[in-house]
Structure formats: C-alpha cells, structure tokens
Amino acid sequence: MIISWIYWVIVVLVILLVVRCLYEEKSLREQLVAAMVLIPLVLRALFIK
Amino acid sequence: MEWFWPEGMYTIVMVGVFAIASFVFKQPIAVALTIAAVTGALISGNGVPIDHLVEGSFGYLDTILIIICAMIFMKTLQHVGAMEAVAAWVTRKYRHRPFLLTMSITVFVMFPGMITGSSTAAVITAGAIVAPILLKLSVPPVKTAAAIAMAAIYGMAAPPVNIPAMIIGGGIDMPYVGFGIPLLVCTVPLAIFTGMLLMYPDLKRIAKSGKSENGGLENELKKMAHVPLTPRLLLPIFVLLALLGGERAFPSVSPSFGMPLAFLIAAGSGLLTGKKWNPYLASKEAVRASLPVSGILVGVGMFIQIMTLTGVRGFFVVSAISLPAWALYLGIATSMPVFGAVSAYGSATVLGVPFLLALLGRSEIIVGSALSLIAGLGDLMPPTALAGLFAAQVVGVENYFKVLKACIIPALVTALWGITIILGAQFF
C-alpha cells in the first residue's frame, strides 16, 4: 500500500517535470510530444486507469 | 490475395502514412505514429476510437517510468562527475593497451543501456562522454559514432534490463526471469567483435605511434577528471547494485521496490557523494532527454492498439506461424530490424511475439533473448534510428547514412548471431 502511494508521488513529480519541460520548449512539435506523454501519466495520477 | 485482404491493405496504409508524416512532413516520430494509428482506425471503419488510443497510450507506461527514473539516475552520475571521472581514469590507465581500452570503452557505453534498457540513454550519457576521447585518439568520427551506436544497442539488449525481452515475454505470459545468462551470451561476443572492428585498429595504431601522449588528449582528460575518482563518488552505483542485486539474490529478505523507485533512491544517494549538484536541474534534464523516447512509446502503444483493433496484429501472427522454416528465419533477420523504423520496442511487440509463438517448443527464454537482440537493431533504422541518429549527433556527423554504412557489418553479424542462437535453442 505504501509502495503504491510512493509510486503515485513519483508519477506526480514526473508530471510536474514534464509540464515544466512543455512550457520551456519552444517548438510546437516537441510540445505535442510532451503533451502526449502527459496523457497516460495524468490519467494514472487521477486513478482513472 | 484472400489472405492479404483487408488487413494487409491496412498495414500498407498505416506504414505509408507513418512514413509520409515523418519523412515528408517532418513530424516527430511520436506524432507520426499517432497520425498513422488514427488513419488506420478511420480506413477500417472504426472512426476515431479515443478509448482505444488512450488504452494504447498506457501500453508502455511502466517502461516510460523506468526510462525516466533511470535517466534521472544517469544524470545524477553525470552531475556528480562520476561518469567523466571513470572515463578519464580508464583512458589514462589503458591508453597504451588498446585491447583493454577498447573493451573498457565498450562496457562504459553499454552500462547506461544495461540499466535503463534504452540505447538512447547510453548514447546521450556515456556516448557523449567517450566521443571526444575517441576523436582525440584519432578514431574517425564515422567509426566513433558507429561504435557508440552499436555498443548502445548491445547495452540495451544486455542484462539486467532488456525491455524488448520483457515485451516479448509479456506477449506469451513469460516472466522476465532467467534471462541474464542468455542475454550475456547474445551480447558479449558481439560487443567484443564490434569494438575490435570499429575502434581497436585505430587505438592500436595510435598506441604504437605514441601519439596517445598528445597534449589535446591530456587536456581533455584533465577537464573530465575535475572530480577525483573515489569509492564515495561511486556511491549511487553501489546503492543501485545493492537494491537491484539484493532483490534478486535475497528475494525473501530484501524488499521489492520496483525499478523506478530503486533508481530514484540510488540517485538520491548522490547527495552523499560530497559533490555539490542540483537534483532539480538533473531531474529536469533527465525528463527532457527522456521525452522523445517516452513519446515514441506512447505513440507505439497507440499504433499497436489500433493494429490489434483492425486485425493487423493477428494478420502478422498468422503469417508468421504459417511461414516455412527458412522464410521464418529470413523474416526474423530482416523484418524485425526494418520494423525498428517505427521503434525497436514496437518491433518486439508486433513481430517478436508472433515469431516467438512460431518457434514454441525450443527454450523460449533463449529464443526471446535472441529476438530481443535482433529487435534492438531497429534502433539503427531511419527515420527513428534512436541509437544511430543520436550517436551521429553526439560525434558531429551530419550525414547519418555514413554511420549506418559503418554499422552494416556489425549489424549483419548481430542478425546472424541471433539466428544462430535461435537455431541452437532447440538443444536446451
């Protein structure tokens, strides 16, 4: 159970870092890639899947 | 033609759209894969199946987390100066012994691939460090890039983490256990052969001529060795070995953290090395470096989900199983590296599983290991060419096809070695 929550924290931290990279990225194409990576991470963090 | 219709047509359209999107419209591979997946769904009459696309994006979520956390670990090693210190120490110690230097550099480049399961990680961390050393030692840039790319691919296939093998095993519910020795047999001889082919002749010539004493190299080594190599500096590596090794050696005693957490704990121990570094900056760099590969994995997941939805994946399985033996081996040796144009992981998923099913009855672990090795060659295949393109960039070679040409012999030998191991698997 504790491990599950630790992994939830890891996923949230990764989301924050990806969002940060997304904002700092100037190329729209690379922003699209970052947004794609966010889809499963955000859904996992929200316990939707 | 009945066997080909309509799944074969869907395959051609999906692969064609992917190629056009990436080659002609210069879209990132991840985006090109998504466009191809949506097109495949549309032409098969499934509309735009958002649920399937989202489901597919989850296919490699665990792999993405492993790669990101492993990259954070590698960036930690870079930031504390451990990678450069080791590279400088090895070069100083063995520069007059070309064979040992060749082997040390090969292992050094393989190491990040071994622990992250990603050839890109190996190229952009260790590859970027050894590239200037090899260039200073007069190894031609094209050969340097080829040597780094091939070592990174062997690192990706070597134990303890081989993601294509995990994917192939997952396809037939085979746990990732017992792969260590087969994967070493698959990769070590090839790593030695490739190092001897691409690096050794130039390193030997330089060692004989005494030019390895040149000032340029010494300056480079001084720059790299700004932190002295001490056991404390290597603490993150020891912690990682204890966490991953302990879990396998003493499963009843050692807690099971999972790879991402083990990498993060090991990276955290970098704070105890005595060297000042910024963990936030290292993590941000790591995530930025991981994004292209992570994006590709999300795209591959969607692509494969739509292949499954439209029956294309089943078409591959049935075609693979019905192939005669000679065509099966030829198909493995050619189609798996070529499909790597999408991604080596995609190749393992789409082709690795049907080929393993077609070869059931032999040692599945050995066959799976060999298939993962051959799938790894896909990282040389443009337009993705994760290992090759990054290696060319790291060295500064603009025309990637020159690097690809230098990789042809090692790649052919790798495919042949993989097939030989598959043939030999019937005796185990």
What does this structure look like?
The complex is a heterodimer of chains A (49) and B (428). Chain A is mainly α and 49 residues long. Chain A has one domain (2-45). Chain A contains two helices and no strands. Chain A has helices spanning 2-24, 28-45. In chain A, helix 1 (2-24) runs antiparallel to helix 2 (28-45). Chain A is elongated, with a radius of gyration of 12 Å. Chain B has one domain. Chain B has 428 residues and is mainly alpha-helical. Chain B is globular and about 70 Å long. Chain A binds chain B through residues 3, 6-7, 10-11, 13-14, 17-18, 20-21, 29-30, 32-34, 36-37, 39-41, 43-44, 49, and chain B through 27-28, 30-31, 34, 54, 57-58, 61, 64-65, 68-69, 257-258, 260-261, 264, 283-284, 287-288, 291-292, 294-295, 298-299.
Please summarize what this structure is.
The complex is a heterodimer of chains A (49) and B (428). Chain A has 49 residues and is mainly α.
The number of helices of chain B is 21
Amount of beta strand of chain B? under 5%
| Helical content of chain B (DSSP H or I, runs of 4+) | over 70%
Low-pLDDT regions of chain B:
none
